[in-house]
Amino acid sequence: MADTLEFNEIYQEVKGSMNDGRLRLSRQGVIFKNSKTGKVDNIQASELAEGVWRRVALGHGLKLLTKNGHVYKYDGFRESEFDKLSDFFKAHYCLELAEKDLCVKGWNWGTVRFGGQLLSFDIGEQPVFEIPLSNVSQCTTGKNEVTLEFHQNDDAEVSLMEVRFYVPPTQEDGVDPVEAFAQNVLSKADVIQATGDAICIFRELQCLTPRGRYDIRIYPTFLHLHGKTFDYKIPYTTVLRLFLLPHKDQRQMFFVISLDPPIKQGQTRYHFLILLFSKDEDISLTLNMNEEEVEKRFEGRLTKNMSGSLYEMVSRVMKALVNRKITVPGNFQGHSGAQCITCSYKASSGLLYPLERGFIYVHKPPVHIRFDEISFVNFARGTTTTRSFDFEIETKQGTQYTFSSIEREEYGKLFDFVNAKKLNIKNRGLKEGMKQSYDEYADSDEDQHDAYLERMKEEGKIREENANDSSDGSGEETDESFNPGEEDDDVAEEFDSNASASSSSGDGDSDRDEKKPAKKAKIVKDRKPRKKQLESKKGKDPNAPKRPMSAYMLWLNANREKIKSDHPGISITDLSKKAGELWKAMSKEKKEEWDRKAEDARRDYEKAMKEYSVGSKSESSKTERSKKKKKKQEKQVKGKVEKKGATSKSLSSTKSSAKSTNESFKSKEFVSSDESSSGESKKEDSEEEGVASPPPSSEESASGSD
């Protein structure tokens, strides 16, 4: 038999809400990790007293009772898993997994039994419903009546808020059944009653969420925030995590208390309590307990008289009462030397702290993201400027967080940190060996600050070196990683002092050219290469050899019909996906065969290109020779005409008239959009010919001009 059993998508009932997570049963005990909060419940095998299997709304459920009276309920099992669980309980826990069905008669009278922290309403021997007394927020009594009020469940659309029990009078003297019922409920209920004196009081503390100045009264079981407008009572059982974070200015400290369930004010929910302290504030604190009680209760973690910085005293007292570790930033250091990064989330600017097991953003709104719930991260270009970039995080539940306006100097430090933590980077792709090595059932707030980070960094460097040495021949394309400091600066921007001067600066005023050299540089740099690109695209030779196909494309062309026949009716996109999966699963030996074919095709292409380039050179040389021959003939004709014009003096008057007419005529004829220098030279040659050749008549001049 296996030593462990694991179940995904199991739901635990906590204070009326069903929290999904992962359940693992082992020889040592039962572990449940909440997917939403990362909180871990660990039940030792020696503490288990009873196991019950029953049918519930979400399939089948498992109820575990411990020897100290705690009850744990897990739903979402399939009926077929009963035998496996029953055998496991017998073999490792020495317990019989009993099957008990709920009563569905619909009667509303029966017997109430109190067992541990559970109130069970039974008809005969079968339970109708059970109420965990920790869900009860208030209990009031009336004549023959007891009313139970419950904590509101924010995750449910409809919450059960109240249940009333009618308690019939009995003939027993001296015992009131209503009061006895109420006392049984209140002894186990989660009812906050500010009885007695506070252990200590911190006055006028600055609170960022909820905003304002509050007095914090520390009681044995809960925390009381007293402000000018609102009061909040926070049980220590709702405190999930504690964070102590240094501000970027190194003069202030954040103390963050994570709450589940959150405190409420109207429709507003506060999942985090954030206090801001100055490092210069000191305090002397005296606990409202004698020294023996302090030693017995806190076992040396606190003393009756303490003094020091205010933030240290608050965090020390909270750590001792809540009995949870305080999370502080690890060895991450940004570009400025701070342990955080300045960025914006939604509409507000704040600070992002990379921790050993997650990220936390303060302060508005505060966000805590654990590494084990991150699907991938992404480095994206800034939307407004290239001097900053965006850091995107997407969780496995599909929630996306975008932290924008991060200075690009922080890119290298943040990238190294993400890489060392083995997080999947979207625009680089998931590389081999980059899978996360977190324990699925480890509590996410147990941060370690020893050699863990250094080991991760060393492994990250080794993986990067291996990845750079190896080349990926699978034919799959991945997005380029965004490096803000390595941008392409080939094109000169407007008003750039390094922009080259315009070649046509001699045409205009020199003063004007000195004032605006950059605009002309932009025209030269932007427009002319664009024209050349268009001309090269239009003038592409259809007789040029075609580029060779890759190994994957050769294999796909050979196997396309086979894939179609194996999957009749498959669409083009599905065919491409299927082909990619087949190619990826293909062995290395088979791929080498297609690689050889692709190499042969590449050699044939290079050979054909050499032959094509030799042929094109010979054709271009022929056209150049013909152009030179034509120019030579034109010069000879021009020389003869000039010689003839020098000997015939009688036609000088007609020459001058022909010159004027030709010039006036050619000013209209030679208006052209061609800007090349060859066009201007041709125009000069034609003007000289017009001057040298005297037309004997108007008809001949007209025919000559045509």
Describe this entry's structure for a reader.
By secondary structure, the chain is of the alpha+beta class. Among the domains are: 4-99, PH-domain like (Roll); 111-187, Structure-specific recognition protein (SSRP1) (PH-domain like, Roll); 200-327, PH-domain like; 341-421, PH-domain like (Roll). 33% of the residues lie in helices and 30% in strands. It is built from 14 helices and 31 strands. The strands form 6 sheets. Strands 4-3-2-1-7-6-5-8 form an 8-stranded mixed sheet. Strands 18-17-16-15-21-20-19-24 form an 8-stranded mixed sheet, covered by helices on one side. A hairpin with a 5-residue loop joins strand 19 and strand 20. The radius of gyration is 42 Å and the shape is elongated. The relative contact order is 0.04.
Rg, nearest Å: 42 Å
At CATH level 2, the architecture of the domain at 200-327 is Roll
Sheet with most strands: strand arrangement: 4-3-2-1-7-6-5-8
Q: β content, as a range? A: 25-35%
Give the number of DSSP strands: 31
Structural class: alpha+beta
Overall geometry comes to elongated
Mean pLDDT: 75
Q: Indicate the CATH class of the domain at 200-327.
A: Mainly Beta
The total count of helices amounts to 14
Q: CATH topology of the domain at 200-327, which one?
A: PH-domain like
The unreliable regions are 430-434, 446-453, 471-529, 531-538, 649-706
Distance between the termini: 105 Å
Percent helix, as a range, is 25-40%
Q: Main sheet, how many strands, which sense, barrel?
A: 8 strands, mixed
